[in-house]
Amino acid sequence: MLGKYSHLGIFGSIAVTTIVVVPLVRAQVATPKLYISFPPANYQTASDRIFLIGSAPSEGKVSVNNKLVPRSQKGHFASVFNLKVGKNTFEVDYKGQTKTIVVTRAGAEKTPPPKDNFAPNSLEPQGDMARMPGELVCFGANAPTKAKVQVNVAGQDIPLKEQINSVELPDNKAALIDRNQPQAMYGAGQYLGCAIAAAAADLGNPTYKLEVGNPPTTVSQSAPGKIQILSPTDLDIAEVTVENGIARTGPGSDFSRLTPLPKGTQASITARQTGNNNGKQTNWVRLDYGGWILAEQVRITSGVTVPPKTIVKSLTSKERDGATDVTIPLQVPVPITLEQGTNTLTLTLYNTTAQTDIIRFNDNPTVSRLDWKQLSPGVVQYVFNLKSRQQWGYKLRYQGSNLVLSLRHPPKLDKSNPLKPLAGTKILLDPGHGGKDPGAVGPNGYTEKEANLYASKLLANELAMRGAAVYLSRESDKFIELSDRQAIIDNLEPTIALSVHHNSLPDGGNPDTKGFSTFWYHAQAQSLAMYLHNYVVKDTGRPSYGVFWDNLALARPVSSPSVLLEWGFMSNPSEFELIATPEEQQKMAKSIADGVTQWMLAATK
Predict the structure, then answer these.
(1) DSSP state, 113?
(2) Taking a C-beta distance cutoff of 8 angstroms, is the pair 237, 269 a contact?
(3) Which of 17, 91, 337, 471 is deepest in the core (most CB within 10 A)?
(4) How far apart are CA 371 and CA 454, in angstroms?
(5) How many angstroms separate the CA atoms of 250 and 286, rounded?
(6) What share of the chain is helix, strand, coil (3-state, %, to 5)?
(7) What percent of the chain has pLDDT over 90?
(8) Is residue 14 predicted with pLDDT exceeding 50?
């Protein structure tokens, strides 16, 4: 008997419908001819190798550049080929049918600078920047090796030293393909140097001077960006204008995220810099507590004589259905960070001084005790000691200048029916990709978006039969923005959220890689990710790809423990055949539902 699940539309109301599982017709139909699913036509990559994925009827042989490639029992193949810099042509042949694949590898090696000049676009800063007095300001240029390089700033010459043993760190994704090693940069020729400005000043564009050769050739060139040293007594003020300002450790989207800053947060600006934001050059500002934020996410006010600072006198808590609201009255909304630990939740307020004499905190289902201390001048820290190791989510916002932290209570399971162990829980399933975003593609063209939706419906059915109220972010082949998927979680506040995916590797990976994996970001989701991974691997006998901490959009919501599941690899021919088999996907769905049940029962004891 089929169970029921509830569907949450992004803009619509909640409706209850019956699950109808549609067979994987496309995956079961034999591929009638040679098919290449990856790479697409005219593909470009910076990797030194690529894998070709495709399929053909099992009878006959497939060759690439006259070399036979191994295939699975059903005729699928995925083989790795090395790439040279420039164009690489692959002739794929099956019974006289030939497909030509051209892959262009961008020059992985850095182009050496001219023999008598600076390398193009190498003089720092590339964009305008500002720093505080007493702070290091660093300069850099690429030039011929064994040259004399210096930079003149405001009439002062600063020598730059050649960095002989520089290395380039691997991309973040290198951790996924076991190639997480730094690489030596191309030769020498990188020159660096730093200086400290003691007072506020507009230093203008630094002028670089190069002397190279014998007799020496001299070249002078100005950097594109200007340098300003800010006055500590005349700093601009930033106010966050978006719901959750994205704060980072540096001026660029490749820097790590900090706790999002609630709308209304105010702080002094202590630095400015042009940086990268997902491939676009954008202006960033550094707030006085250390976090960087896009200038477009704040409103900047000049001429404010007093920087945003506050005292904190009291704290109150109020229990409501499903959560405890903690309210801290402040004079102005200041920057904050929040960190989850084992049995603790630590809230840090910056530009804040404690004058606290009284805290009202009644006994409630979540917090056993609240401690506070003045960590340093201007930094106050509150430590919520929790009754359980498992945390169930929180929300952090400003109401005027009041900081409100909502701590979710553990779910109350309805234990009246042992056949419905998940009764009393809400579970959100997010089938990844959809619409114009196909995700990974299997050897025969079956897409990840299709596999994700099918698997999610199987899992929804299993969870519903165990008593959970199950919600899907999508029931059909439609595209949903990542921000909308996050909003669904935050609005619904499910007990847990699971994003359902099927894996593939970035360029440079090994298509033999296979296995089930889980991904988490916040500490509240780590236990669920680890438990599900270990349970499913043991229960199904599927190989393990691993458990990963990863900054993924669908793992970032803090309102619920959120985990992303990768059921297996679309890029692995043998594992793809399991993904394309309904009976095998049903086994996975049942195992994951059993794992969720066992974890939930243990976590709510």
Answers:
(1) P
(2) yes
(3) 471
(4) 48
(5) 8
(6) 15, 40, 45
(7) 80
(8) no
Tell me how long the chain is. Answer: 605
Q: How far apart, in Å, are the Cα atoms of 514 and each of 60, 300, 517, 519?
A: 26, 50, 9, 15
- pLDDT tens per residue, range 29-58: 444 589 999 999 889 998 999 999 999 999
Give me the mean pLDDT over the 131-136 stretch: 96
Above 60 in pLDDT, residue 402? yes
Dihedral Cα 239, 242, 243, 249, nearest 10 deg: -70
Q: How far is the C-alpha of 54 from the C-alpha of 476, rounded, in Å?
A: 26
pTM, rounded to two decimals: 0.91
How far apart are the C-alpha atoms of 223 and 596, rounded to whole Å?
Answer: 57
Given the DSSP bridges, would you call strands 402-408 and 323-329 parallel, antiparallel or unpaired?
A: antiparallel
pLDDT at 173 (0 to 100): 75
pLDDT at 2 over 70: no
Does the pLDDT at position 248 exceed 50?
A: yes
CATH 3.30.70.2740 fits 237-301, yes or no: no
Domain extent listing, the chain: 4-25+413-603, 33-105, 136-224, 237-301, 323-408
Token pair listed for 67? 């070399």
Omega of the bond leading into 215 within 30 degrees of 0 (cis): yes
Query: What's the per-residue H, E or C state across 363-408?
Result: CCCCEEEEEEEEEECCEEEEEEEECCCCCCCEEEEEECCEEEEEEE
> Under a CB-based contact definition with an 8 Å cutoff, are residues 183 and 132 in contact?
no
* Pairing status of strand 496-503 against strand 426-431: parallel
Nearest to 74 by CA among 323, 443, 565: 443
**343 vs 187, which has greater pLDDT?**
343
Can you tell me the distance from the alpha carbon of 80 to that of 400, in angstroms, rounded to the nearest whole number? 57
Pick the CATH number of 33-105 from 3.30.70.1060, 1.10.4030.10, 2.60.40.10, 2.60.120.430: 2.60.40.10
Could you tell me the pLDDT band of residue 10, with boundaries at 50, 70 and 90? very low
Quote the CATH superfamily of domain 4-25+413-603: Zn-dependent exopeptidases (3.40.630.40)
pLDDT at 174 over 90: no
Whether the per-residue pLDDT at 98 is higher than 70: the answer is: yes
pLDDT-derived band at 264 (thresholds 50, 70, 90) equals very high
Structure tokens belonging to residue 276:
């990268």
